[in-house]
Each structure stands twice: as C-alpha cells, then as structure tokens.
C-alpha cells in the first residue's frame, strides 16, 4: 500500500478548497486492509477484525486538526481563567461529596488524594459532560494511514480494537477526541489498556459509562506515573523584589530550604518552610502575574498532559475544591498575541543579536532566554515574558484584536 500517495493528497487537502473524502477512499480502503491484517497478526480475532475494519470511515477533519496551528498564542491568564472557574470549583465539591466513599478508598490504595482526581476529571471532560464526539476508531485509522505519525497511531488503533474485543465495547459508542482520547479521563488506547481498572467490579472496564471505572483508573494511572503520596503539587508563592528570573524553570531545581534562603515565601508572606524536597519556580505570566513553586508531583501531572499551564490549573483547582484560597496575585491583563506577533518579536530579537533560533511563533526556552537578555539591555525586569514594554522596545506593533 502506497501511504505516501495518501500523504500527498492529505497535504493537498489543506490548500485546496474541495471535498477530500472521495479522493481518499481508494487509498484509505487499501490502507485499512493492511491495518486489518496487522490487527489479526497482533491477536485480534478474524471475526472482530473483519467487522471493525469494514466499518471504518476516513475522517478528513482529523487531518485538518492534526495539521492546524492556533492563530493566537495562548496566555496563562486566558487559559487559567477559562478552566478554574467558580462553577467548576462548586461542581467539583459536589462530585467529591457524591463519590467520597470511593475516593477515600482510592486514596488509601493508591495514595492519590480525592481532590486531585476530581480536578483531573473536571479539566479533562467537565466531570463527564463532554467526552468528545469523534468516532475513535475512524480517527485512529485516519491518522494511522497518514505517514506523519503512522507508527504511533497504528499501534494505538490496534490497541483500541483489542480493547473493543476484550471489554465487549460497541464500535459506534467509542467516541472521543480527534486524536483518539477516550472516556471520562480521556485516556489514549495504550493508557486504557495498561492502566484502566474495573472500579465497579462488573467484570469489564468502561471509561465512558462507569464513573467508578474512570476514577479508579485515574488513581492507578497517577500512581504508576510516580505520584508521591503525602506531597502536594506545589503552591503559589511570593518572590522577593530582587528575584533573578534566570533561576526560574525546571533546570534550576533547588531544595525547599534553599529557596527559602533566597527569599521565597508563601503567597500570604508566611515562611516557605524547610526541607530537602526538590522544587522549581514557574512564572507563567511575567513578573506582574502569580508565581508558583512546583514539587515532584507537578511533573507527574505534566506526564498526564505535558503543559505547565495544565499542571497549575489541576493543582489550583484541586486546592480550591477543598476550600483553598483563590490566587493571591491577580491575573494580569494581557493582549491577545497572534503567532505573527511572536514571530515578529523573534525576528526582531535575532536582528538585534539575541539568537532565539528560527522564528516560529512559539515562546520556548530559547525565546525566553533571548527576551531576558533583551530586557536586561533595556533595563527592564528580566522575567523572559513578552510584555507590552518588550514588544514596544523591539518595535513590534500589536494590532487590536478580540480576546480569544
């Protein structure tokens, strides 16, 4: 099967405005046969493989989403304010009370406190109210037949078909994200197969319909990822006025005692505390925004979703669910930057002698390092954040646009 031909047509789809599905059908059908044979060789019964792969339908929208890049750059205030809401806090408390007996038992067995499990559930699917609408097997097959990440999605597809057979799932009811994440906890098939647990003891694992299965599976997953019982995720902190922002970031881990010696305090001004727990500083919205200290469990959260924004949202939502305080430092008002704005800044930094690599519109470590050097040269607080002062001095004009 010539998957390269399919790839060429996939790319064409993103630049030519016409229906792609009819063009893709012959190549997709050929790819399905190859995938079906691989599934059989991996242990899927012939009967199930024939039935499942015969029903698979190419999903051009999946390729569009896989290729798309966001027009705007997500800022922490925008991300956080949409995810840690009063409604979600109150709903989280309700779900905690409703499932308290199960959650306490899971904490005893796996060492993951209830409020964290509820917070993950809230962020992943709004406590099960939105689990995605894309046909999972169709989506995975579409991605498996596309060379960009064919090997990964081929394995995920075959694993998903094995799950269908093992758990007596219905193909039409296996819906989720465009990339194949499923159920209350949005597990990929490989995570489902490896970590999902029958929490309600009905003899099967159903992450769509069983809240008990989903919560038990989340606890098992986090424990396997390395969750450290008895430790929190991190906390909001207060930085000293002369804080060197070059010390922020995962590569600058220090013990709790060392951070306290450097003047770091809790958000309310109380002492940070002493200990040999490794931690690092996260400043997601510049010096005007809140700052956080991240403990080892913060990185465990990021193994679920590799985003510091996500990990902060999970941790703070968990705190709020058990009557924790709101952020002590207000979220700053920030413009909605487009990717072109950031590319213009990166270009300006490169032209000024601050090498940030090829301009790509992504604010990564190299760009933050370049911004800090630029800020120091212009006697600004060197927090590595592209604030309006930085944009202005770099000569980048930000067009007014609606907030995303």
Automatic annotation (TrEMBL):
Residues 339-392 form the Peptidoglycan binding-like domain. Keywords: Signal. Residues 1-24 form the signal peptide. This is Lytic murein transglycosylase. The keyword Signal applies. CDD domains: Slt35-like. Pfam families: PG_binding_1 (PF01471), SLT_2 (PF13406). The keyword Lyase does not apply. PANTHER family: LYTIC MUREIN TRANSGLYCOSYLASE (PTHR30163:SF8), MEMBRANE-BOUND LYTIC MUREIN TRANSGLYCOSYLASE B (PTHR30163). SUPFAM superfamilies: Lysozyme-like, PGBD-like. Residues 28-319 form the Transglycosylase SLT domain. InterPro entries: Lysozyme-like_dom_sf (IPR023346), MltB-like (IPR043426), MltB_2 (IPR011970), Peptidoglycan-bd-like (IPR002477), PGBD-like_sf (IPR036365), PGBDSf (IPR036366), SLT_2 (IPR031304).
